[in-house]
Amino acid sequence: MKKLLQLKLRFLSRLILKKYRPEIVAISGSIGKTSAKEAIFQVLSGRLAVRTSIKNYNNEIGVPLTIIGAESPGSSFVGWLRVFGRAWLLYFRRDLSYPKILILEMGIDRPGDMDYLTRLAPPTVGVITAVSYSHLEYFGSFQNIKKEKQILIERVARKGLSILNYDNEAARSMAEVSPARVLSFGLLPGADIVAQDLHYRYQGASYDIAGLNFKLNYEGNIVPVEMPNIIGEGGVYAALAATAVALHFGLNLMEIASALRNLRLPAGRMQLLPGIKHTFLIDDSYNSSPEACLSALKVLGQIKIDGAASKYAVLGDMLEIGAYSEEGHALVGRTLFEQGINYLVSVGERSRDIDRGAKEAGMSSDFIFHFDDSATAGRFVQERLHEGDVVLIKGSQGTRMERVTKELMAEPDKAEELLVRQGPGWQN
């Protein structure tokens, strides 16, 4: 049934794309896809008719649903009939409000996924946020992951644009295969679009955590960017990717900077939330990989706290990284200790390698605690917290680390609004 559904959605999506001919901005990468998607939508939507994928609609079912403009009805037969009816109506009756630009997140789980998605929706603009070891379990090697994601850039229209993260070597090297013009972005000199002179608010007064600013430099033209709702580098990279896309569609740097001021990342991505007992939570519970975890630990490490307060890293297993699992988890543990984080609370069998890495780096076992499940870990941390403590919560989806956040947040009644995976399908 799923295969039949997939075929029907592909057929209808192609009909709609052929009729309306929207420009397609396709985004892929091992980390930062959704943040980049949200930033691109934030910048473009004020000026242009755009639609972006909702939730995590980034596969062979989700991408067609975005093209059609419908949410998944789950297992409802009647719901799917309504989706198909909407698609046929779009085809037979011209909808003057159909978006001129579709912003599509394209995720890959197994070989062949990117080929399928780019043939379904050929990109005008292709964005690669980064390439890392995510999904190594299914691809066998880092090079195979890169090769799969590279298909997106190979398929960009010749008159389009390829946008690559300059700071990620694997992404940067894809410029060689792009049939279109290339724009790179990053924090390092050499990128076409550079964020320079970054200043994070947490580097100043204690507990003034959220917010950052930087200078956006493109071809020597520099504008200041203020993002009061962002706390980490992930948001900066998303903003730079959005800048490249916006320039392609004719926006100027001042317009872009103004739009970025209102950027908020989705739930579960470096969200600062008030915690119980006047503590602070950094909820990064949506998913995890070694690279993303290292970035989050860097933020936690740099936050200034009062002398009596502590920093906790509550970290779950990082899944689907195959042979890199042991090394990647251990690297996270070593980095955690080097960043001066006081307590490590790990969740899941694989995260024992985080514990091992922290111990090898010099962290005392007295400050390391391990649990089999996130709910128990959350209750443990709740009992230990004191005023002024800062807690980072992160882990792969399978560890359900949002349960830790819910246990620790000051307003758990707002969990459905603020946390990931709060729908009925997840509550078991």
Question: Which strand order do you get reading across the main beta sheet?
Answer: 2-3-1-4-5-6-7-8-9
CATH superfamily of the largest domain: Mur-like, catalytic domain
Q: Any idea what the radius of gyration is? A: 22 Å
Approximate shape: globular
Mean pLDDT: 96
Task: Give the CATH level 1 class of the largest domain.
Answer: Alpha Beta
The number of distinct β-strands equals 15
By CATH, the architecture of the largest domain is named: 3-Layer(aba) Sandwich
CATH topology of the largest domain: UDP-N-acetylmuramoyl-L-alanine:D-glutamate ligase
- Main beta-sheet strand count, sense and barrel state: 9 strands, mixed
Task: Give structural notes.
With 428 residues, the protein is an alpha/beta fold. The protein folds into two domains: 2-260, Mur-like, catalytic domain (UDP-N-acetylmuramoyl-L-alanine:D-glutamate ligase), CATH 3.40.1190.10; 271-421, Mur ligase, C-terminal domain (Protein-Tyrosine Phosphatase, Chain A, Alpha-Beta Complex), CATH 3.90.190. The chain contains 16 helices and 15 strands. A nine-stranded mixed beta sheet has the order 2-3-1-4-5-6-7-8-9, sandwiched between helices. It has a six-stranded mixed beta sheet with strand order 10-11-15-12-13-14, sandwiched between helices. The longest helix is centred in the N-terminal third of the chain and has 19 residues, at 2-20. 51% of the residues are buried.
